[in-house]
Amino acid sequence: MDTQAVLADIGAHWHVYATMPLIAALIGYVTKRVAIEMMFRPLEFAGIKPFGWQGVIPANARRMATTAVDLLTRNLVDPKEIFARLDPEEMVKELGPPLLKAVEEVTREVMETHQPRLWEMLPARAQRLLVDQVRAQAPAVVKRLLREVSANIDDVLDVDDMLINAMVRDKSLTCRLIREVAAPEFRFIARSGICFGFVIGLVQFVAWALTKEPLIMPAFGFVTGFVTDWLALKMIFYPREPRGFGVFRWQGMFQKRRQEVAADYGALIAEEVLTVRNVMEAVLTGPRADKLFAMVTREVQRTIDAQASIAKPLVALTIGGRQYQEMKRAAAAKAIEFLPETVKHVESYATGALDVRNTIVTKMRQLTPLEFEGILRPAFKQDEWKLIAVGAVIGGLVGELQVLLLLH
User: What 3-state DSSP class applies to 311?
Assistant: First the structure.
């Protein structure tokens, strides 16, 4: 090895050599940024299959959502415990005027439709008395219904289905959930590429000076993209527990941020996923909505029977058995129509009472390191090889470009 010749070459082309670690650092950074964006964009497949790309997370939205929901319902949120916090007394108080208005409209409409002659024959005072009787019964009926729903929440609400559908329906929500919770980790990945790339660039500097081998540049570019992507991803999660010697300690970045992650994740789930509005929609339109409607129907018909027994002679004279059953069914159907609009009035109270955010934050801080890792790890695990491979290929291409610039 002619040391003098090597030093002379470095002196003559110092500006070229000086760029090597800088370009390697740039490769490290760019490949990380590309890998991160490829996780989230585009939301929908772009290209002509099989050639094209869709963000890793949007492409696997259902798998991501299923994993996240499994973590939620298995470790963080117990639907029965959560919904037991709703106080029927307070719920009825919050419903107040909207409930009584709905009851009055249902009573008048059903009577006018199914017993128009009887309704017209009744003096205004008698009509008012009948409506008031039904209104007086409504709070007790609603309280009883709410207690039954709370005790049998699994019968009327499929929490897993609700959460998965919400996240799959809005792929941007799933992306935002991961991107915002792991924002510091993604910044770390991108910035680590600069440091790792620079170090590898110094090795590249020496290798080129000694060999002048054209394959050195693309090979080192490939290695820079591959190693820095792989190392950055590992450093996010490992080690799970603090390790080190003496005063030097280190731990996976995500694990180290447990307190902060718990607060961010709890807020996002409470504000965008497990919301009272989503719960109401799932209860009223989800796969188990028929169970709720059956409960409502039973309570409405039971109330009508109780009221009819008070005026049994009148009922017997004016309403045949078949008509009476039709009237009960119509009243129940009408009550169900009013449900969506009426329950909106308890959204504010229910949000505070369920206290989803603080529940999730508290439970997350009690997770084991392995369970905690499961919050973010599924976003990387299955397809992280694609991201690493893309980083390596981009690094190799930039390395080849370096060769062309050096030689020509």
Answer: coil
DSSP H/E element including 243: strand 243-245
Least confident of 71-80, 164-173, 302-311: 302-311
pTM of the predicted model as reported, rounded to 2 decimal places: 0.70
Contact 192, 32 (CB under 8 A): yes
188 residue type, one letter:
F
5: tokens are 């010749």
Residues 209 and 201: beta-carbon distance below 8 Å: no
Residue 195 contacts residue 282 (beta carbons within 8 Å): no
Between 2 and 293, the more confident residue is 293
Q: Which two tokens stand for residue 223?
A: 């290695």
For the record, the structure tokens of 296 come out as 């409502």
* CA-based nearest residue to 394, from 226, 258, 263, 266: 226
* Interacting residues of 150 by C-beta distance below 8 A, sequence separation 6+: 83, 84, 86, 88
Query: How far apart are alpha carbons 402 and 25 in whole angstroms?
Result: 13
More confident residue, 55 or 246: 55
Spatial CB neighbours of 112, under 8 Å, sequence gap ≥ 6: 119
Q: How many CB atoms lie within 10 A of CB 214?
A: 16
Task: Write out pLDDT tens, residues 14-44.
Answer: 777 788 788 878 877 887 788 788 878 888 8
Per-residue pLDDT tens digits for 30-89? 877 887 888 788 888 888 877 788 887 888 888 878 877 887 788 888 888 888 888 888
Look at the alpha carbons of 403, 405, 407, 408 in this order and tell me if their dihedral is positive or negative.
positive
d(Cα 141, Cα 129) in Å, to the nearest integer?
A: 18
- Please, are residues 253 and 247 in contact by the beta-carbon 8 Å criterion? no
Residue whose C-alpha is closest to residue 157's, from 73, 93, 96: 73
Q: Within a 10 A sphere around the Cβ of 379, how many other Cβ atoms? A: 24
Q: Under DSSP, is residue 368 helix (H, G, I), strand (E, B) or coil?
A: coil
Long-range contacts of 248-252 (CB under 8 A, 24+ apart): 252/373
As given in the structure block, the two tokens for residue 345 are 């009035």
Residue 117 has pLDDT above 70, yes or no: yes
